[in-house]
Amino acid sequence: MRTVNMILAVVMTAVVCTQVAAQGFKSESFPEGSFSPVTNVNRASYPRVLKDLSVMFRVNAPQAQCVQIDLCGTKYDMTKGDDGNWMVTSKPQVPGFHYYFLIVDGVSVADPASQSFYGCGRWSSAIEIPEAGTDDFEVQDVPRGEVRSVYYYSKVDESWRPLLVYTPAGYRESHDAYPVVYIQHGGGEDHHGWMEQGRTAQIMDNLIAQGKAVPMIVVSSNSNVHSRNGGFGGGYSWQGMQSFRSELIDNVIPFVEKTYRVKKDRKSRAMCGLSMGGGQSFYIGLRDPEVFANVGVFSTGMFGGIQGASNFDLEKEVPGILTDTETFNEKFDVFFMSCGEQDPRIEYTRGIVKKMRDGGVDVRFNSYPGDHEWQVWRKSLHEFAQYLFK
Question: Other CB atoms closer than 10 Å to residue 194's CB: what's the count?
């Protein structure tokens, strides 16, 4: 039966693709003020964002018995019309980037009307709902840098692994050396996340053009590292970080410093990340001050707000942060933390920031409207980048 369902899903995908292509040539009326999000393939008509930021979905699947939309973990039952089109409208969504899936007769598949992004541990559909006042997240008429895909050899994974590397406008023509940010994705994502969902290049291009950030290189690596000797690159503990720590310090950084014109001192390196990557940045960044003098921790769950996180012992995890705070502060030029205001992690994050500040730790903190999602992390990078290397 499972095989039959998988075949059905493939057939449904082909049908939807055909229908989407055909619909592009039809004249169609839409609700006033609605629009096709930029994440649609060729600006397909559906999914469609309405004035109140609810989302209207339409899927052509005349042979299906049941079709649902899974939008950010909320499932919506679609209603089938006489023409074979299934439709439903979601509740209003907050601005930002939202993963979603089609569920066709019990099989979860990506929507061929949407571009695909690697998230939730798979290639996923997504909807981008714009937010006023975030022009720095969009392509603007400014000098633009480049994002390149390159490969390095990992002695941890014993394989060739990819990096996505942003170089600022003017890098090719210049003979200057640049500071570097090593930026980490969250769980269920990979190195594509920051450059695609996170819009790193757009953010950096606009900040640099405005003079709000210095020209810098940004390196996005895949931290889903499996050591041949055992161990995975995640886990909210110092021990759990060791595979990726070795990958980053012994493999990624030496490759970048050999391949690109970069400054090689600690003050010219930063590490930051979101969620799982925030935990990696906290442990590796703060416990390796001889490597990094700048650390950004975005929306990590290590302090609480997720299953298994409790009783975080700050001094144990970062020795000296509370007992030799003056020395700790001297080691870091920038230590920045952030979290979404609707994220279950927010109160735990505020609590640990208060504990740090009460102990004299020089930590900057900001929160932004939103849950555990990309609009918060774009804003986090946007702010963090403005503090760096000055």
Answer: 33
Residue 9 CB contacts under 8 Å (≥ 6 apart), including other chains: 104, 105, 107, 109
Measured between alpha carbons, how far is 41 from 336 in angstroms, rounded to an integer?
37
Rounded to the nearest 5°, which phi and psi values hold at 124?
-125, 155
Contact 360, 314 (CB under 8 A): no
| 8 Å CB contact between 184 and 223 | yes
What contacts 24+ positions apart, CB below 8 Å, involve 44-52?
Answer: 44/20, 44/113, 46/113, 47/100, 47/111, 47/113, 47/114, 47/127, 49/127, 49/129, 50/89, 52/92
Phi and psi at residue 221, in whole multiples of 5°? -110, 160
Rounded-to-integer distance, Cα 199 and Cα 239, Å: 31
Rounded-to-integer distance, Cα 25 and Cα 19, Å: 11
273 with 352: CB under 8 angstroms? no
* Backbone φ/ψ region at 13: left (φ over 0), alpha (ψ -120 to 50), beta: alpha
Instruction: Please state the φ and ψ torsions of residue 208, each to the nearest 5 degrees.
Output: -65, -45
Nearest alpha-carbon partner for 387 in 179, 105, 170, 107: 179
d(CA 208, CA 156): 35
pLDDT digits (tens, 9 = 90+) for 341-374: 999 999 999 999 999 999 999 999 999 999 999 9
Token pair listed for 7: 């075949």
Would the CA dihedral through 188, 190, 192, 194 be positive or negative? positive
- 282 SS3 class: helix
List, for residues 23-80, the tens digit of each pLDDT value: 444 567 899 999 999 999 998 999 999 999 999 999 999 999 999 999 988 999 999 9
Give 315-318's long-range contacts (Cβ < 8 A, gap of 24+): 317/238, 317/283, 318/282, 318/283, 318/286, 318/287
Q: Which amino acid is at 59?
A: V
CA dihedral for 221, 223, 226, 227, sign (positive or negative): positive
Per-residue burial over 95-133, b if 16 or more Cβ lie within 10 Å, else e, is: bbbbbbbbbbbebebbbbbbbbbbbbeeebbbbbbbbee
Q: How far apart are CA 99 and CA 159, in angstroms?
A: 30
